[in-house]
Batch of 4 targets.
Target 1
Amino acid sequence: MNSIVLTAARLLFLLSFLGMLPENMKTQNFITTHLEVNTGKLENPVRIAVLSDLHLYEYGPDNADLVRTVHDEQPDLITVAGDMVIKKNPEYGSVITLCRQLTEIAPVYYVHGNHEYDNITKLSSRIGEDLRAAGVQVLDSEWRTITVNGNSIDIAGIPRGPRRYNWTDQVMMADYLQSPNFRLLLLHDPGFFDPRITTNPDITLIGKPIDVVLCGHRHGGQIDIPLVGGMFHPDVGFFPNLTFGDNLVGKTHVIVSRGLSDHNGLPRLNNPYELLIITLK
């Protein structure tokens, strides 16, 4: 059975590359996906908008369509899970413009993805400084305690993926995991919770006392096969897990956005771009 599914998936992937899929099977615009996550640890509900993997795309002039949708959802917090830019491309003005508008809706917390990280280390990008100047809280391997709707929440961010995890991240996490409050972690890459990626006990976050994690990176597995899930991601290969939605790993809710755009030219099928709206309880 697995070989049949794999063969069919590879055929769909090939047809997508060749541009032979019907137009109505291709992704257009973005959807808004609502998730409710019951942790039993919050006194009052917290509504969070999650943006990820925009890759410099704009929905309307200055992302007006995206901003309007976020505004209408009335989130308590807005989180950005990275890869809003494109590596080797020094431009990021549209991201600053977007995030400045988002700060007028709710507090914005941003964690870099691998594309921002590459541009910071290789192109000396100043996106972090410019985001902060725009009023965004950039969590660059750091954490802080915030109060939202009467709840004390310890929010943290790791800007690097498992293969680049370093002592700065380790020191921060050791301190963070001692905190007494509800723990919300922003990661771009869910590989920290994927045993196919992370087996080093010093790096994996599987089993750690983290309540909710917000991620992106895996682009929904490119092709979402009904009853099977995402089909491919370069980090993992065929049939990766943690490609979208709410995934319970141990006692941690690992919530993964399908992302708002692409950069790699790989096809998407049955896998819309999405804005995530999460209600934590």
Note: The CA atoms of residues 54 and 161 lie 18 Å apart.
Target 2
Amino acid sequence: MLFFSVQQFHPQDNLYVTYNGNPIATVNRAEYSLPLLGVPTLNTKKYTDFLTYLEEQVYEESKDAKIDKTGEIVKEQVGVKLDRYKFTKLFYSRFFGKGDFIEVPVERIYPRVDSELLSTIRVKKIGQYVTHFNSSNKERSTNIVLSAAAIDSHVLFQNETFSFNKIVGKRTAARGYQPAPEIIRGELIEGIGGGICQTSSTLFNAVDLAGVEIIKRYSHSKRVGYVPPGRDATVSWYGPDFLFKNTYNQPILIRAKVHGGTLIVTVYSSEDINYTPRKITPKKEKKDH
């Protein structure tokens, strides 16, 4: 609890909080003060709850620049959040002093990726891989489309590590993922998100051809048909993840597109990238005798 001079304190008054000139909250001084030995004291618990409320009212998430389906760059959006330090200084001076209004101060939240950066790293193709699937299987196709959209336009900066699970997120029915067959411990079973391993495997082959550092990759316990033997990357929300790191001198851009029953993952960067493509020799499939 904080103590202040009582000379100009008017507990009967309201304090009005505005944002962009519009009222968003009213603070009654009497409700937010705790009389203690005749000295007005701020109810810090109530004030902390009020700050949380203000943060929710003011917060606007920043948005990275993206490349849309037509290949055009969608400009980034700068976000904002409550400047707690400046607001608290203003609040104390108004609450225990003169003034009936506080305009909420905010901090800008700048996106990771702007349109200028995207325009420079979409130039040079450094890796690409294509796989095919049965588009008539609507559930599995939906999962591939959703997971491909999640990684599309993602930019990985120098020395950053890409986590498939983190970028794609949890595969749930609420997010549109469908039940479809997936391989678990060598068995083909029905599960939400079945089919996304084709997306992770296509991505693995694309970035591997681009020569990035593969940090973590697991193969299925059973042969899959959409990539050569040993060239798959299984993922599961509560299990395996696929991780790779950009060790190059420039950011890299991942594009993922679905055309009918074809999934294409391409890796781009700027003309200034110093990279070494990796030559892949697929494993020969063992034959039964």
Note: Residues 116-269 form one domain.
Target 3
Amino acid sequence: MQPRKDLFHIGASGLLVLLLFCLATAGETPPQQGTPSLHPGEPHPPHNQPPPSPASSVEEEEEDRARASFDLFTRQWMQKLVRTDDFQKKRMQIRQTQDGFVAEYTGYLPYRYTTIKLTQSELTPFIGTLTYYKKTMRSVGKTKEQAMSGLFEHAETSQVSEIFRYTKGEWVY
């Protein structure tokens, strides 16, 4: 006997999906005529709560602007750091060991993490933290020249956090 392949035949995984769908949509009502509909991905407004006050909307817009400008600011900051590789190579440190020479310089990984916090200051309403990683590049050789011109390898990584302030609509170091 073959299993039925009609609308009423669903397996255990299908029942689970159906149950989860029912739980997720419980209590929702379809939009009524004249009610603005939400775009996909937007959260549902809380029931029985007044609309946000204009002051909070202005604050939210300012925070959104600060976040967007901090994203751009930190991207540009990281691009500047990454472009310093040649400059850092010229400033490499060389030391002699029992086995020869070690040459090292500092480079930067392009990864970054950011956070923004609201402050109580009217002059500086936000502070932003940029976290990135610097790397130690290392080469070894029997002579100083071999170490300086050898293949540099990523030897160490350390985390750096910098704090910036948002004053008069722009991020300041």
Note: Residues 56-172 form one domain.
Target 4
Amino acid sequence: MKYCKQIFALSVVAILALVSFFPVGSAWGQPSPLFPGDQTPPTFAVSPFFIDATNDGSVIVANTGESGDLCANIYLFTPAGQMTACCACPVKQNGLLELSITDLNKNPVTGVPLTKGVIKVIPGGHCYPAYVNVAAGMKTYQIIRSNTQAVTSPPIPVPDTPLAGGELLTLMRQCQNIMRNGGGLGICSCPAQ
């Protein structure tokens, strides 16, 4: 009985030592491959869009300069949640990029441009939407524009949304599938800078 108590006490000490050495939530103390380093949880922009013959919209991406040059990794979805296009557009440090929804929507994998849907924008350190190196330092805004009148709404900030690792993996896999199997469809294009 005396030895059982000693073994139990040693086991508890060993477990406490492991818990204090490897932080909670880490895989044996290793940083997440999706979210490197000890940064705060990453965020991304999620916004609905509606376009037709009378209205168009734009997404404006501003680089805060926090992480140097960045890429806006862009994903378009139908209202039912099917990804129809993806691409990545560079945004210089302290720079601004305006993306027309109509232009982003010209080459959907379905072959039929959307009139409404969801756009997601993730800031990354390099321009490859099928494997995103998540970075901080991007703010996203939306503008609604009338095609029949000279009326443009002021930029509307798109709130930051926490980005879960599962969501990021799903976006990257769906985009990779489009790039491999879309036959050139589903790759949106960036404006010339």
Note: Residues 4-33 have pLDDT under 50 and may be disordered.
